[in-house]
Specification:
Elements: E1 26-29, H1 32-50, E2 54-56, E3 62-65, E4 74-85, H2 91-101, E5 107-114, E6 122-128, E7 133-140, E8 147-154, E9 156-158
Parallel strand pairs: 1-9
Antiparallel strand pairs: 2-4, 3-4, 4-8, 4-9, 5-6, 6-7, 7-8
Length: about 170
């Protein structure tokens, strides 16, 4: 699902280094509520994949326009969140678990690299073409409260005929 992962920020995992929605694959037809529920389920799956106790941040997913498409008809779901293990030492375990799980069940790791930040944070980008989602995970192990920045982005959905996108 990822077209160009050259950007080293977690805010643009599923598309190219252009605006959100650019280059996203077709994710089919769904209401915004159905698409948000699907992305929430992917985020829950990632939480389980971490395999260690921890706390997920709020708020939930939001709906954005698909670049170059009618904003009343097409949309993408974007869910950035943070996962902080209960025990700070579990941050490495959580990332190792995610690295393993994000190569199973339709998931494919597209990139695994250290970014240019002073802490050289480990970044993982994975796609699930069947679910039409991409995830970008950044391991903030050197922070006072170690955490994983997780950014889930869907493909580009079309609302059913006669409906419009509920932007939030």
């Amino acid at each position: 699902m990822t077209e160009n992962d050259g950007n080293d920020s977690a805010g643009n995992a599923a598309g190219s280094s252009q605006e959100p929605g650019a280059g996203l694959p077709d994710a089919g037809t769904a209401t915004t509520e159905e698409a948000v529920a699907a992305v929430k389920e992917v985020s829950s799956e990632l939480y389980r994949f971490a395999g260690v106790p921890g706390k997920a941040s709020e708020p939930g997913p939001g709906v954005k326009k698909c670049e170059g498409k009618d904003p009343d008809t097409y949309f993408t779901v974007h869910h950035p969140w943070n996962f902080a293990p209960t025990k700070p030492g579990d941050i490495d375990v959580a990332m190792e678990n995610l690295k393993k799980k994000l190569n199973t069940g339709g998931w494919v790791t597209k990139r695994l690299y250290r970014d240019n930040s002073p802490n050289k944070a480990l970044n993982l980008v994975a796609d699930n073409d069947a679910k039409k989602v991409s995830v970008w995970i950044v391991q903030y192990s050197k922070d006072a409260t170690p955490s994983l920045g997780i950014d889930v982005t869907s493909g580009c959905y079309r609302v059913p005929e006669g409906q419009t996108v509920d932007h939030f």
